[in-house]
Amino acid sequence: MGRLSGHKVHYVDADILVIGGGFGGCGAVYESRYWGRDMKIVLVEKANIERSGAVAHGLSAINCYIGLRTNENSPEDFVRYARGDLMGLVREDLVFDIARHVDATVHKFEEWGLPIMKDEQTGRYLREGRWQIMIHGESYKPIIAEVARKSASLVYNRVMVTHLLMDKRRPDRVAGAVGFSVRDGAFYVFRAKAVIVGAGGASHIYRPRSAGEGMGRTWYAPWSSASAYGLLIPTGAKMIQMENKIVLARFKDGYGPVGAWFLLLKCYATNALGEKYEARRFAEIKALVGRYADLKPMPTCLRNHAMLEEMKAGHGPIYMHTEAVLDTPEKEKIGWEDFLDMTIGQAVVWAAQNIDPRERPSELITSEPYVMGSHATCSGAWASGPEDCAPADYRWGYNRMTTVSGLFGAGDTIGGSAHKFSSGSFTEGRLAGKSAVQYVQDLKEDLPEIDESEVQGLAAKVFRPLDTYRVGRNEIVAGTVAPTYISPLQGLLRLEKLMDEYVGGYTSYYVTNEHLLNRAVELLALLREDLESIGAEDLHQLQRAWELHHRVLTAEAVTRHTLFRQETRWPGYYYRADHPRLNDSAWHVFTASEYNARTGDWHMSKLPVHHIIS
Amino acid sequence: MPTYTDMSRCDGCGECVDICPSDIMHIDSVYRRSYNIEPHFCWECYSCVKACPQHAIDVRGYADFAPLGHKVRVVRDVEGNMVYWKIRYRDGRIKEFAFPIRTTAWGSARGAGDYERPAPQALAEPFLAHEPTALGIADLPRPRPFTPVIGAMPWGD
What we know:
The complex is a heterodimer of chains A (614) and B (157). Chain A is of the alpha/beta class and 614 residues long. Among the domains of chain A are: 249-366, Flavocytochrome C3, Chain A, domain 1 (Alpha-Beta Complex); 453-583, Methane Monooxygenase Hydroxylase, Chain G, domain 1, CATH 1.20.58. Helix content of chain A is 36%, strand content 16%. In chain A, the strands form 5 sheets. In chain A, strands 1, 2, 3, 6, 7, 8, 9 and 16 form an 8-stranded mixed sheet that branches. In chain A, a hairpin with a 5-residue loop joins strand 8 (174-181) and strand 9. In chain A, helix 3 crosses helix 12. In chain A, 62% of the residues are buried. The mean pLDDT of chain A is 97. Chain B has 157 residues and is mainly beta. Chain B folds into 2 domains: 3-100, Alpha-Beta Plaits, CATH 3.30.70; 112-141, no CATH class. In chain B, strand 5 (71-77) and strand 6 form a beta hairpin. Chain B starts with a strand and ends in a 7-residue tail after the last strand. Chains A and B meet through helix 1, helix 3, helix 4, helix 10 and helix 11 of A and strand 5, strand 6, strand 7 and strand 8 of B. Strand 21 of chain A pairs antiparallel with strand 8 (149-150) of chain B, so a sheet runs across the interface.
């Protein structure tokens, strides 16, 4: 163990390094170990895998379960559903691949101890909707973490990975990663033959509706800091669909889930006048997007659109009529558990505002936008597809490998495979894990090597915010205003404000245009420069500083992609006011970007959408 | 707050520091007890509340939309594998709920290395671990032959 930039250094060698211990990462560890019995499999996580990732809180449903053994659905049906919900643009090979494997994952979850609710009549899993099953999911993450810990060679908790390392001889090949311990400030250098990124998507690149201390109540976890993209983009990995932000219609303020209410409890939403507005607005939606409006169920973004138009027309609040359906104690219990398992803050809202869901309706609202690859959206890396279903131009190597050799992804990291949710993200981790074992075996003696001079440069860069603060802090008496540095929070608030105002946040009803986007590009460039002047007063703030780096780079990708796609593909997620309609003749394609970290250039292109399912 | 630590109950054990997904529960250097250093990055996920052996941590809902006077308390029992909730409204109403959290003993799930080693040639097949048995069907579904439609929605007409 040596020292770099005054910090202890730990070198860790791994056959397979998994970054991020959420569902994608835990699945990757599990499958890597299954196939790579003698391999060293290392998991690194910035928090504690017992409660980390988007499922830290718990969940009340598994949203991706096909029901193959009971002939409920086929994988083809699931592809049609996901592609319809995303307005036609998904990687059908990847979605099909998840759908044909995901049931086995869910059956293992049940075997490990996850309580899955059963339909008393049929004995099958209790369906919330066609694709969703109900669970008692308070301990969903701790159960999965137990299995991941038993499967990994080593788990490093509280180590924040800041950068990936590339092979010294082949710059298109990954060689490891660096990061630091949030607890003792040691610098970690991971040397790996293959790397699987299972890090999280992005909350907090847009200004949240909640203010002050409530700012933490975003719909997606505040610790989902865009590392899924912030780690990959600097490597030059091809990213797709970064403009495909998601906006969620949820219970107001607490962002409690609506799925069980709409699908299982058969609840309905109206405007303040008691009108079921979706049906009334059908003709205008059809005029915007044509036949996509006829899809069943109506795509998520279009349902958002109807709600937004109601609010703009002055017909708010929008109400979820819980009082109309909670007619038995059993239903009341299901309704409460839905929140207590996964969004306790919404139960706090009910208690604090004296809302008894049996007596009065609750308000719904559309959230701020998020960037993710696992929900009803599919931003992320362009990945090689499975051998037996990927079209030739979707396949250049191992399943779930990005355009960088040896760099794999799962969950929010992989683009084009929407509607994975928890079970699908774990399944994608498993697919990536098995592929990574094959990749490592095939490497034989041709092993990647890290560049020591690059590592030294990164060590200096990673810890610089501590020095910036230490020096700059001496210039002022007290407080947070300094002429030479800004705090990570000050930088984050600037990012959120500009993304909100220029790139289609909630204050503009998600509307943007070419002029606004070009201005955002200018302001983001200035913010990127100021990131060199972030001051961190301790290791916790250093974590916040690097989360901000990942968020800003992701925000720039979002802005570039939004500028590139000259249409409004997903009204209800965002609107290009200068291209207000869906344009299938020009834009039934994926948008792709490749970032050159040396020159700062973004190369944009279109990639074909192959529909392999009728 | 949203989470806060009761001064008289906390003994500074650090379980909350260890579990917090947001790294915002820290030990105060003067009082040697925990506190929430960044309420604006708290998700009210209750991980620290559930982990606290002293039941010293509670949540006061986000000040920007939650009026005072409420309580949402929880006990997570990992012996009986149940979670117990008690909700007190601002107006004093009480609601109580209990839900199962796990059907097997903690520590009983098997890691991937605990299973029989797969045959080397199986690595080249499309099956994941435990398939096809774990799928509950005879074989892995394969896509039906279909001439791809490129760049337009296959509306089926």
